[in-house]
Amino acid sequence: MIRRFFHTMGRQDRIYKTLSEALKTDKITLYNDSYKHSHHIAMKGVPDTNETHFRLEIVSPEFSGMSRVARHRLVYGLLKDEFDGGLHALQITSSKTPDEVS
Amino acid sequence: MNSMFRFWIPKTSISMQLRMLSTQTRQALEQAVKEDPIVLFMKGTPTRPMCGFSLKAIQILSLENVASDKLVTYNVLSNDELREGIKEFSDWPTIPQLYINGEFVGGSDILASMHKSGELHKILKEINALAPEQPKDSEEETTKKD
Question: Keyword annotations for this protein (chain A)?
């Protein structure tokens, strides 16, 4: 039941849900930039170009003590299934701890 | 360059094939990222980038005044093994990816942050990867010669 519900969610909602739970935060802003990239040659043959490119700003206490690369890797690791399933790019324009924001 | 990533793969079980491909790809990539001071895996080439993020990476390196003889680029669109192998190698799911002196630095987002903060310039300067700036008196010297 839960699994079926999860898979009816769009990619944007799944990304939000995965990150908010794993990183213990609701401070997530996720933009869908897919329309900007749908004409790229690298997107040729991709069946669904509506949910392939996203841009993320996120604040999480889980980032404490981590380098920028480690923070991005953590996020990318949590979304491995999405990348395997057709997510092409996730820009991470901001990944901070609550202390760094205030 | 592309020939580095062509292998003969013996027919064995799938898991063995994957392991062997991975091992050979890994060795080729380990060599590739160490051969030159700055190595960029991108989509397309510096003069014809094929995606916005690869373009951004090239623009940043250009703004940083990286010497052309210090930078080598690999076009992942020309080789599927390279395209997938580099992601496994770096544990990083997207292209472009930048290496400096064999160490993974990041993708276009991190390059943008490091460029903005001055951190990238500092690293590039430390390893002498910047193109020499023209001394101001060179123009004067030219004038004198005339």
Answer: Cell cycle, Cell division, Cytoplasm, Mitochondrion, Nucleus
**What homologous superfamily does CATH list for B24-129?**
Glutaredoxin (3.40.30.10)
Q: How many helices (H) and strands (E) does chain B have?
A: 6, 4
B89-127: pLDDT as tens digits: 998 999 999 999 998 999 999 999 999 899 899 899 989
Domain containing A48 equals 33-101
Burial of A36 (0-12, 13-18, 19+ CB in 10 A): exposed
Residue A11 within a domain: no
Instruction: Kindly list the strands in the beta sheet with B97-100, ordered across the sheet, starting from the edge strand earlier in the chain.
Output: B71-75, B38-42, B97-100, B103-106
Q: Which residues of A69-91 are buried (b: 16+ CB within 10 A; e: fewer)?
A: bebbbbbbeebeebbeeebbbbb
Q: How far apart (Å, rounded) are the C-alpha atoms in residues A86 and A53?
A: 10
- In tens, the pLDDT along B22-48 reads 787 878 998 899 989 999 999 999 998
Chain A residues with CB-CB distance to B106 below 8 A: 68-69, 72
Tokens of A47: 């069946």
Q: Pick from A69, A90, A100 the residue to mutate for testing the B interface (most B CBs within 10 Å).
A: A69
DSSP, collapsed to helix, strand or coil, labels residue A89 as strand
State the Cα–Cα distance between residues B89 and B23, nearest whole angstrom: 10
SS3 state at B90: helix
> What total number of domains does chain A contain?
1
Residue B55 to residue B47: CA distance in whole angstroms: 9
- Asked whether residue B51 is marked as a ligand-binding residue, the answer is yes
CATH of the domain at A93: 3.30.300.90
